[in-house]
Design a protein that fits this description.
The protein has 88 residues and is mostly helical. The chain contains three helices and two strands, in the order αααββ. It has a two-stranded antiparallel ribbon. A hairpin with a 2-residue loop joins β1 (81-82) and β2. α2 (16-37) packs antiparallel against α3 (41-73). It is elongated, with a radius of gyration of 21 Å.
Length: 88
């Protein structure tokens, strides 16, 4: 018997650095498990976790890029001008 995999929601709560470490460790574990056992329910669960971690990392990277782009697009501060008026 083995523990259940964390859900995608649980993975999304982790920092990107932690997820990258998990990805590295999970990759090593999956390769070793597959070498020893081939295709089993356990190796399939390990592969699913590996894919979920990859998906969440990609989600976070895209989200960070979109957030950074929004910050560049949305003007702020005392120099923001709307129409002919300068807002103070």
């Amino acid at each position: 018997m083995f523990l259940t995999n964390p859900t995608i929601t649980e993975l999304k709560q982790l920092d990107l650095a932690i997820l990258m470490g998990m990805l590295s460790q999970q990759t090593e574990d999956y390769i070793q498990l597959f070498k020893e056992n081939g295709f089993t329910a356990r190796t399939l669960a390990a592969r699913e976790l590996l894919h979920n971690i990859q998906d969440v990392i990609e989600f976070k990277r895209v989200s960070e890029r979109l957030s950074a782009n929004r910050k560049e697009i949305i003007p702020s501060g005392p120099d923001f001008v709307q129409g002919d008026q300068k807002l103070v």
